[in-house]
Design brief:
With about 525 residues, chain A is α+β, with helices and mostly antiparallel strands. Chain A has 18 helices and 15 strands. Chain A has two domains: about 1-120, 2-Layer Sandwich (Beta Polymerase, domain 2), CATH 3.30.460; about 210-529, Cytochrome-c3 Hydrogenase, chain B, CATH 1.10.645. In chain A, helix 8 (about 255-285) runs antiparallel to helix 17. The interface of A and B includes residues 227, 316, 354, 357 and 358 of A.
């Protein structure tokens, strides 16, 4: 605990008198109340002196209770395993804040979301337009303001589409999507080419904004895990885990030991089928059909195992606040052991052979490079970040469930190309198998859930999990009548889509596009929320 | 550093050795595992909706379950029947209703073939006539089953 006190003292000294450093109720989170004018200098100090990593920026409307808006900026101090939670209070009259995107480009999209949801804007932003709301959404309707009802019929206005400026002669723009061949989510790309070379891209990933945060604020808290799972179906377990952990942290309860280990098991099974599917998609992009089928076969086997042990191929309905909704039978354990040992035997050869196939490897090497500096500026997370030098993984840096007791390696590479991302995912498959084996070895009999006491109104909490695509953060503020007043979700893909367009220019040709897209392996649904 | 290169024949052999794993579905029905969450079914013999129970309705997030009352023309006293409707078009197969039911009147099957030809056929209705002892369930093909009493 004295480390915490020392950290808080250093923070106070560094940020100055105006910034209040609050002793937290959890020793893994420090609250800083920052006046609006000190936001830029505080963020600079945190990054330079403490090596803090930006994670999330969002706003909330507290005008009914306190006549203010609140801006929340969350950063991670990985070495100290602490979250830094900056709260900036803005009164109704001067409802704007200093622009952060010059200092940190990663904040660009977050500021636009705050603006379109709440109506409070940054002083400066290079491109302040709506981000997730549809082009026909009326300008003065703000979904995160109090009084907005998710069910309300919002009148459509004349749509305002954004397009690149007209291509000069010699430049061709290829539109791709949102309707495309294959089983893919809706998203639109405009690929700008000069001859064969890809010079620019405009990504429109926000066709699927469902307002899940606002929906979750209308339902009883016990039903929110159902919504959390459906933010991005392939990260269902990770998102519901982050939400349930936020509730458990707020209630101050420890879930049973068996549940902590089982959560790792399910989380790693989710990572496993995602990464196997990732490689199947990558092999499809390069036309290595037999390898694609091999990965698809293994992914299907994992999905069937999921159905066997949880009743759902995508592990829906497993997490509940307080633990798990169902136990793992000895039958289930046996099935997992069998799959893990046969997959391990297979992966030893399969991964090596795939990367040694020239027709596949040549298309991955030096393609779609996201340089380490760019990944840093845009705070890329997950395998994409780790392939570009970002040595961060929530399972090691802010351990949850029983990860602190696990032996694991976090693979990191510096090249930032598609080959590096593919290698990271192969290594993570191996680590996932290892984690599952460790979990099964350490699993003991016991309860799988603790009852959750009613959550106190007016209190808030952070929850997090490392999904297959990276760091997911959930923040809850409990309201009245057993419902949430505010639910904030930052999915991993939201962070990474910002960085995606940086990997396009620079020695990539048009036919590299499917490879770059699949090598990022991002989810549209997760980013949309 | 000389890197290993995979010969194309490796993949040909691999494919041939793996063989065909595609299943015969839909020619041969594929059974899901015992805990698989498929179509929920109402057992009208046990349901307490007629006594005012709304346990399943209260936990249903997509509002797939609801109770209403309909006139029963067969009944001499012209009273109203309680009718519990499960709309399979709204159901997300989460299973919370099964857990919430105090009377074991809801159970989950592993059935996943739910396609029908018109929207109304997705509504599964269980009627409870107050004055007779034979609750009935209207299945999705419009047939009426009388349960043995």
């Amino acid at each position: 605990m004295s480390e915490q006190t020392a950290l808080r003292t250093r923070l106070s000294l560094m940020c100055g008198e105006d910034v209040t450093v609050v002793a937290p109720s959890h020793d893994d989170e420090i609250l800083l109340i920052v006046p609006r004018d000190r936001l830029l200098s505080t963020l600079t100090a945190l990054r330079q002196e403490f090596a803090s990593v930006f994670v999330d920026l969002f706003g909330l409307d507290l005008r009914p209770q306190r006549g203010i808006f609140q801006l929340h900026l969350i950063s991670a101090l990985d070495a100290e395993r602490v979250w830094l939670h900056c709260v900036i209070e803005l009164d109704d009259q001067t409802a704007n804040f200093p622009g952060l995107s010059d200092l940190l480009p990663a904040t660009g999209w977050y500021e636009r979301v705050v603006w379109e949801e709440l109506g409070i804007g940054p002083h400066y932003h290079p491109l302040l337009r709506p981000l997730r709301l549809s082009p026909d959404w009326p300008e003065s309707v703000y979904p995160a303001q109090e009084g907005f009802l998710w069910r309300a019929r919002v009148p459509a206005i004349e749509p305002r589409f954004f397009a690149l400026e007209a291509a000069p002669s010699g430049v061709v723009d290829y539109p791709l999507g949102p309707v495309r061949s294959g089983i893919v989510e809706s998203g639109h790309y405009t690929l700008r080419t000069v001859g064969e070379e890809l010079v620019d891209i405009l990504v429109q990933p926000f066709y699927k904004h469902r307002g899940i945060e606002q929906r979750a604020e209308e339902v009883p808290i016990e039903q929110v895990p159902l919504l959390a799972e459906r933010i991005s179906g392939t990260s269902a377990f990770a998102h519901s885990l982050a939400f349930c952990q936020a509730c458990e942290r707020l209630a101050g309860i420890e879930i049973p030991v068996r549940a902590r280990f089982l959560r790792i098991l399910f989380a790693e099974l989710e990572r496993l089928y995602n990464h196997l599917g990732y490689h199947a998609d990558l092999c499809q992009a390069t036309g290595l059909s037999v390898a694609q089928a091999q990965f698809d076969i293994w992914k299907e086997r994992v999905l069937r195992l999921n159905a066997h042990i949880s009743g759902h191929r995508y592990l829906f309905g497993v997490n509940i606040p307080g633990g798990l909704s169902r136990d793992l039978s000895t039958d289930g354990q046996k099935a997992i052991r069998e799959l893990v040992s046969s997959l391990r035997r297979e992966m030893a050869g399969l991964g090596r052979q795939v990367l040694a196939s020239p027709s596949h490897r040549d298309r991955l090497e030096h393609t779609g490079v996201l340089a380490p500096e760019q990944a840093q500026e845009y705070c890329a997370v997950g395998p994409v970040g780790r392939a570009s030098g970002r040595d961060r993984d929530l399972r090691r840096d802010h351990p949850y469930a029983a990860y602190a007791e696990m032996d694991m390696e976090i693979p990191v590479r510096q090249e930032g190309d598609a080959l590096a991302r593919a290698r990271i995912c192969l290594d993570e498959i191996e680590q996932a198998l290892y984690l599952i084996e460790q979990t099964l070895a350490q699993l003991r009999a016991g309860a799988i859930a603790t009852p959750l006491p009613p959550l106190p109104c007016g209190e808030s909490s952070l929850g997090w999990a490392e999904s297959a695509r990276g760091e997911c953060l959930h923040w809850i503020l409990v309201g009245e009548h057993g419902r949430l007043q505010r639910y904030r979700v930052r999915a991993a893909s939201f962070a990474n889509w910002q960085a995606f367009s940086l990997a396009i220019p620079g020695h990539n040709i048009l036919t590299d596009f499917p490879v770059i897209e699949q090598s990022f392996g991002l989810s549209f649904a997760g980013a949309n929320g | 550093m000389r890197e290993e290169k995979t010969n194309m024949f490796f993949w040909v052999r691999k494919g041939l050795r793996t063989g065909v794993l595609t299943t015969r579905y839909p020619g041969r029905y594929e059974l899901m595992p015992p805990d698989f969450r498929g179509r929920p079914v109402i057992d009208p013999d046990h349901c307490l909706a007629a006594q005012g129970c709304t346990a399943c309705i209260d936990v249903c997030l997509p509002k797939a379950l609801h109770v209403d009352q309909v006139g029963n023309e067969r009944n001499k006293m012209n009273s109203l029947d309680e009718r519990l409707t499960l709309d399979l078009g709204r159901c997300i197969m989460c299973g919370l209703c099964i857990n919430a039911c105090p009377a074991d009147a809801l159970y989950m099957t592993q059935e996943y073939e739910l396609a029908v030809t018109y929207r109304e056929a997705l509504q599964v209705v269980a009627s409870f006539t107050k004055d007779t002892d034979s609750p009935t369930t209207m299945g999705e093909r419009g047939e009426r089953h009388e349960s043995a009493c």
